[in-house]
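Reviewer 2 asked us to include a model.

Predict the structure of this chain.
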Amino acid sequence: MSGQSILAGLRKAREKALAELTIDLQVPGLDDPKVYVRYRPIQQREVDLVHERTRDTKSEDRDLIANASLLAHACVGVFVTVDGKPDGDPSTWPRFDQDLAQMLGIDEAPDGSKIEPTTAEIVRALYMTDGALLNTARALDAWSAPAILRREEEHAGN
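Predicted model (structure tokens):
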């Protein structure tokens, strides 16, 4: 077997592994149509980075901002379902970015001027309540480590 064919097989195996390391979590309260966010596992370096950035923040919402930042880091895309299946190509789904801010209508000030909400503000706008955001962050955290461990166990010795 040539090196190129081995690498081609490796690419397919990697793509399959990455696709399996995602979870789709429904956004509470957005039911018609159902809105989901596809997440990948949170990595420890991301947790450390977010905590470092928010450590000196004096905002009362510091923990909420940190959780929103983690959700944004792990986001693969936001999508709706049609006939029970994700709509569109995942590469075109919005993330927690200015495109999503525009879709949510939070990119305009009351006077009509354009604003650029922060990533945390976009996450909070999608989830509508702080409780929904925090519950989603907890669910993602609870799923992340076991998902990575299962994947490693499945491929141990291969």
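The two ends are 17 Å apart (CA to CA). The longest helix spans residues 130-154. We have added this to the supplementary material.
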